[in-house]
Amino acid sequence: MTARTTEVAPAPENETFSAKMKRQTWVDHDDAEYTGYMQALLGGELTKEEYADMVAQHYYAYLVIEDAAKQLKDDPVAGPFINEGLHRLEALEADLEYLLGADWREKIKPNAGTEEYVARLKEVCYTSPGAFVAHHYTRYLGDLSGGQIIRAATIRAFDLKDNEGVQFYVFPQIPDYKAFKIDYRDALDAAPWSDEEQQEVIDEVLVAYRLNTKVLVDCGRASKTLQAKNKAD
């Protein structure tokens, strides 16, 4: 992953909306990447069960996002972003069964950060196409980007075979991730938002990143590995 940034870069001339959104939200994006939990996961320090905790937290968020997608698939603003090839619930369920067993549903629960995140998703995703796109962008483009680094690190850490346990990061219906992301950003630039509405979308992306950071911080608090590490430090 890229080096951590601490301030918003200045706006270049003729900046597109998608570029503006990436620039204005990058610091908060980095905050999620640089949580103790994520750094420990990328460093191969966590147990398989501690990795499974993050997978479980994702599951609760995608239950809402993908249910909202069903409701908004014909919306003129949100509809162009909805692609069944992105949907993650089936993959998450397969990963949780592999990691935790057939009774995985009885073993998971949302942490406090996830409860706050899910509450926000339920509050805005069904009623605001712009807010839905903000959360959709935050999750799925992240899965196609930094998520691929997480996938590789997790496979190494646990010696996983055939993408077992990391199906969440595999998109068989999207043959070219880079091209897909370019098309997605083109769709953002073509969306019929006013300048004010564009800023509202950016503001909601910031909310999404901050809530995701809280989820990962709570995963870290639940990690015995990190507790022991922090005590040793």
Summarize the topology.
Elements: H1 17-33, H2 36-42, H3 48-72, H4 89-100, H5 112-124, H6 129-144, H7 146-158, H8 177-190, H9 195-222, H10 224-232
Detailed description of the structure:
This protein is mainly α and 233 residues long. The chain has a single domain (34-224), classed as Heme oxygenase-like (Heme Oxygenase, Chain A), CATH 1.20.910.10. Helix content is 66%, strand content 0%.
Quick summary:
This protein is mainly alpha-helical and 233 residues long. The protein is built from ten helices and no strands. Helix 3 (48-72) runs parallel beside helix 5 and helix 3 packs antiparallel against helix 6 (129-144).
In helices, the fraction of residues equals 55-70%
Count of alpha and pi helical runs: 10
Contiguous low-pLDDT stretches (5 residues minimum) are none
How many discrete domains?
A: 1
Shape: globular
State the CATH superfamily name: Heme oxygenase-like
Q: Give helix and strand order, one letter per element, not per position.
A: HHHHHHHHHH
Q: Return the CATH topology.
A: Heme Oxygenase, Chain A
- What CATH architecture do you see? Up-down Bundle
Mean of residue pLDDT? 93
- Biggest β-sheet: count, sense, barrel? none
Distance between the termini: 25 Å
Identify the CATH class: Mainly Alpha
In percent, how much strand structure appears in the residues? Answer: under 5%
- DSSP strand count: 0
Radius of gyration over C-alpha positions, nearest whole angstrom: 18 Å
Structural class by sheet pairing and helices: mainly alpha
Give me some keywords for this one:
233 residues; mainly alpha; Heme Oxygenase, Chain A; 66% helix
